[in-house]
Design goal:
It is a single chain. By secondary structure, this protein is α+β, with helices and mostly antiparallel strands. Among the domains are: 59 residues, lambda repressor-like DNA-binding domains (434 Repressor (Amino-terminal Domain), Orthogonal Bundle), CATH 1.10.260.40; 122 residues, no CATH class; 57 residues, no CATH class. The chain contains 16 helices and 12 strands. The strands form 2 sheets. The protein has a 10-stranded antiparallel β-sheet with strand order 2-3-4-5-1-6-11-10-9-8. It has a two-stranded antiparallel ribbon with strand order 7-12. Helix 2 packs across helix 3, helix 2 packs across helix 4 and helix 10 packs across helix 11. The radius of gyration is 24 Å and the shape is globular.
């Protein structure tokens, strides 16, 4: 009993020290919040597997870990016109809950969508069915993978078994402590302190004419390699992106910078095969980085090839730091994006009409809402909001 109390106390102390709520830890570990609460209160005794999973999850969520690795974009084409097969046997999602739309992208004609998980179809059998998971889509699909007790590796294997062709795969490395100084890296590219197989780089700087006291050189982005090639890197200031998109203060951003490995076509396919063979995302990711790029410090009277590796870059690629594990950040689908649009674009007009109603003693706004007709699309979006992930998965 003493040993049990010991590890439970350690679990709770670490959770609190890392600033994690019971809900966030439970969701990431694949258990319910009440069950985690019962464990911490000594009212439930988990299996060794759950106990191990809780501690592994805690370490993945450790805010002091400077780097984390995740999948951030997946696009796969399947040689079939059978949309239900892709949705139900590969994604393991119930097609009945998908929103159907009579438009799509990449010259496809229709799409099925749950949040940011998108499956596109065409009447042209040569185009097949296209699955696209952007950043939010990856996070939302991780939520379903968790409920299905599957991993990204399981999913990729199912895709290959279905003869899926990987059109794009992005691996993202989040820098949570500001280890990557993007203006410095850009300067190294300009001063030939970047030894690379790539022949080009592009550096962009953006900022604002207000909030000058918050951060200088805001919005730095460095592309290494041609954007038209099958492999290139994008390094950018994630904290500024979140500030510009969601008005999150820079000092409160969890991720400072992001290093993205963007792979297309054959490069994406080779990476997936390597991932499934090794089962080690860090090795696959950093072998790609090390093959194409190295930042060094200029040394007089030495050949460029003999210049020593920059210390910050050496730490980034693995010297004297702990191993990186694949991070998953499962998120349920919400309509926060729609709410943001309403808040910024529509709410001021609604407030104006409400004020006019008060002044004129009319009820225009309430009558408009009462008389509004919901379309089938609206009904489907409402349904998607109250469904649990267990309702949607197969």
């Amino acid at each position: 009993m003493t040993n049990t109390l010991g590890w439970v106390k350690e679990l709770k102390d670490k959770r609190l020290a890392y600033g994690l709520s019971q809900n966030k830890l439970a969701l990431a570990a694949g258990i319910t919040r009440p069950y985690l609460s019962a464990i911490e209160n000594g009212k439930a005794v988990p299996t060794e597997q759950i106990r191990s999973s809780l501690f592994d999850t805690l370490e993945r969520l450790n805010p002091d870990a400077p780097l984390e690795l995740l999948f951030d974009y997946v696009r796969i084409r399947f040689p079939t016109v059978d949309v239900p097969q892709v949705l139900e046997t590969i994604l393991h999602l119930n097609m009945d809950y998908m929103l159907h739309e009579d438009f799509a992208y990449y010259s496809y004609t229709e799409q099925y969508r749950f949040g940011d998980i998108t499956v596109m179809a065409s009447h042209d059998p040569t185009k097949g069915v296209l699955l696209e998971l952007k950043g939010k889509g990856c996070r939302q699909y991780e939520n379903f993978l968790l409920a299905q007790h599957r991993s990204w590796f399981d999913f990729f294997k199912d895709c290959l078994n279905a003869q899926g062709v990987f059109k794009r795969l992005d691996l993202a490395i989040n820098d949570k402590t500001g280890l990557l100084n993007i203006p410095v890296l850009a300067q190294k590219c300009q001063s030939e302190e970047c030894i690379s197989l790539f022949r080009s780089f592009k550096y962009y700087r953006s900022g604002e004419l207000v909030h000058r006291d918050e951060k200088t050189d805001m919005g730095n982005t460095l592309y290494v390699g041609s954007l038209k090639s099958e492999v290139y890197f994008c390094i950018y200031e994630k904290d500024y992106e979140q500030y510009a998109k969601n008005n999150i203060p820079l000092e409160k951003a969890e991720v400072k910078n992001r290093f993205e490995i963007r792979l297309k076509n054959e490069r994406a396919s080779h990476a997936v095969i390597d991932l499934l063979t090794r089962q080690d995302v860090e090795k696959t990711a950093f072998e790609i980085i090390n093959r194409y790029i190295r930042f060094v410090d200029k040394e007089e009277n030495k050949r460029r090839s003999a210049w020593s590796m920059n210390q910050h870059w050496a730490f980034f690629i693995g010297k004297d730091r702990g191993a990186l594990r694949l991070t998953t950040e499962p998120e349920p689908y919400t309509f926060e994006r729609t709410l943001n649009w309403l808040r910024h674009q529509v709410a001021p007009t609604l407030k104006m009409i409400g004020t006019i109603d008060q002044l004129n003693q009319t009820a225009i706004l309430s009558e408009m809402i009462h008389e509004a007709k919901l379309t089938e699309k609206h009904e489907k979006l409402i349904e998607q909001q109250y469904l649990t992930r267990e309702d949607v998965i197969l």
